[in-house]
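Justification of resources, computational component.

The compute hours requested in this renewal are based largely on the per-chain cost of generating structure records like the one below. Each record pairs the submitted sequence with a full structure-token output. That output is archived, and it is also reused by downstream analysis tasks.
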Amino acid sequence: MRLDRLTRAQVVVTGARQGRPNRPAGTCPFCPGGQEAPEPYDVRWFPNRWTPLGRDRAEVLLYSPEHSLALWQLGVEWVRKVVDLWVDRTVAMGALAGVAYVLLFENRGAEVGATIDHPHGQAYAFDEVPQAPLRELTLGRCALCETPPGRTVVSESGPWRAWCPEASAWAFELRVAPSGHIQSLPALDDGQRTALAEVLVDALARLDQLFDAPMPYMLWWHQRPSDAGEWPLAHLHAHIAPLLRAPGTPRFVAAGELGSGVYFNPVSPEDAAARLRALPGA
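The structure output for this chain reads:
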């Protein structure tokens, strides 16, 4: 881990990952019988062979043995198994010595760097709270409680809501959070886990229906750190950043935005929410 002296950005230099395989053309290693899944399974996790953070600090999470299905296509009952897997890995990795933060995430589609077309996510265990969640945790107030979503809500189930943030950086960006101040995935009760599965299935289905094609996206969870701190402002939520702004047209984040730190979204969140709500969902 290095810190850029000018920008203060954290960078992990991990040269060994340069040689990792890219989109294998033969047998999928994540399908049952493959290299990483030799036995039948429902959901599964295993250590990432090409870890960027050291031994036991990076895992691959397999959502299903079905190779060609997106997360939402697995259905509510199966996605509930994925939620339980997220909970399990948050607890297990958070209990490792020196781990301060567990980040769960998914890169869906070759356009955002996914190297294997099989429904899966990843988990990283950091020895300190990374900068992005740390900014949210040190605002002095809970922004999710202070400013609940209004007319940009896209999907709801129980306490869970998916909505387009009022200052979305990505076209059709979604945020997913419970209305109550729940701090982490392990804090969810049985009903809240099922409601989360329902919202995820519906919201992600709408993204795929938007342009009648699979939507490449990045999804990541922010939750309470795993260290001994109190972190009263931690409010569990997911960020979903879809790549496309129009059919076949990526929304690139380029020099004007990276150079200024100001994002220019070509689709208003209100219009994005209205378009997503108009779709049948799942």
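The longest strand covers residues 101-108. The chain has one domain: 35-277.
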